[in-house]
Amino acid sequence: MEHEERAESRSESSAEVFERLFLPAMAGPWAVRVADAARLGPGDRVLDVACGTGAVAAEALRRVGPDGSVTGLDRSPDMLAVARRKLPDLDWHEGRAEALPFDDAAFDAVTCQFGMMFFDDPGQALQEMRRVLRAGGRVALAVWDRLDRTPGYAMLTDLVERHLGREAGMPIRASFALGDADRIRSLLETAAFVDVEAASVDATARFPSIEDWVEAEVRGWVGGEFGDKAYAALLDDARHALAGYERQDGSVEFALPAIVGTASTRN
Judging by beta carbons within 10 Å of its beta carbon (0-12, 13-18, 19+), is residue 117 exposed, middle or buried? Predict the structure, then answer.
């Protein structure tokens, strides 16, 4: 049975593994915080940049109601394919944050959850977000805090690099590359936003098991084929090294803070 489950997980795309494991553990809970930070309400026209499989878009849809609208943009066709299956009536676009394919002043709010650290040019992306916002519009973004503030992930990253190679750890380390509130504040101010705020927000992440946590990272984020032997050795090491985060029911829970930045456009 375990072999069949492993084979089935390997047949999933990274986006499908992301949806199955990352969304309930991290993306879903943080979507509520990002929507709160953007002060989304009935009638708002919302753009979710780097929408992934649609965590924030789904939360935004619940808040804007029938008089509002939600548009999602991502550069990954695989992520968008999952998002479209979940919410087929939303307006999904494939594209880059640095060149948003929308008119000036088209939205009341722009959100961006855990995507900005992967943009080719975060500053240009923020300028584009400001361009598509109406006067007085709002932006809310979240990026993971520094890796050294997330000891569970620091430990897992070391394990991945030890067993799968330094290159395998690079996507994980990149996830924490903008974990600095002063830098987020500076990027927003340089993009000519006003009422800029940025601060670290404490939170926890939960996976059903250590195995799910490792699978989420390796198959849902790092990607690539590393061979069953290397993966089994990684899992065995992780079960011991990460045991301190395991709860009585076998699930794992660990600190995962993020920087939340908010700003608005001039009226």
Answer: middle
